[in-house]
Amino acid sequence: MAKYTIAPSLLAADFARLGEEASKVLQAGADVLHLDVMDNHYVPNLTVGPLVCAALRKYGIKAPIDVHLMTRPVDHLILEFAKAGASYITFHPEASDHVDRSLELIRQQGCKAGLAINPATSLQHLEHVWDKIDIVLMMSVNPGFGGQQFISSSLEKIAKARQLINESGKNIMLAIDGGIKADNIFDAARAGADMFIAGSAIFSQPDYATVIADMRAQLAKSK
What we know:
Blueprint: E1 5-8, H1 18-27, E2 33-38, H2 50-59, E3 65-70, H3 75-84, E4 88-91, H4 99-108, E5 112-117, E6 135-139, H5 154-168, E7 173-177, H6 185-191, E8 195-198, H7 200-203, H8 208-221
Parallel strand pairs: 1-8, 2-3, 3-4, 4-5, 5-6, 6-7, 7-8
Helix pairs in contact: 2-3, 5-6
């Protein structure tokens, strides 16, 4: 069976109790914590900076932290989040003047590097940087806000991305972000995703373990 990764998005957590929420969701069976970084410039929202990532590490979080930069520019924040304890750093190709350089910068800091592809962004951005990518993050909503509905046409694009990854011969994770919940995670897995970012679907429920178990049960059917 494929190894599936569930990465709750802390954007949907209770920020007044963020360390506690992070610990609770990991104890409930999550693998990775996803941190949505928005700058009110590249996207119309403002969320968190490196200090929050560092605070989670200081709180005692040992699990991987997946930082999704929805910012422009990206290179300075790559350095700052790497220092703050990020494990994975993903950015949007439209937000970097030199995508190859930004990917290399992430890896130089000892982090896994990813490119995020918006619903209307071409997969051609991946073509010449396969050797520097560890994660392809497919957006199944337009970035900037949590709680959006899954764009169903994303499934076809996930399948195409999976085909390209397989053809590259590289060991690259294929993540899906936006509107993921128990009733569509099976379809995303069948299309080729192996990392699933879910925010409100998990944090809006009283029992995180039950939601994650439901997602795992759906994933088990997709093998």
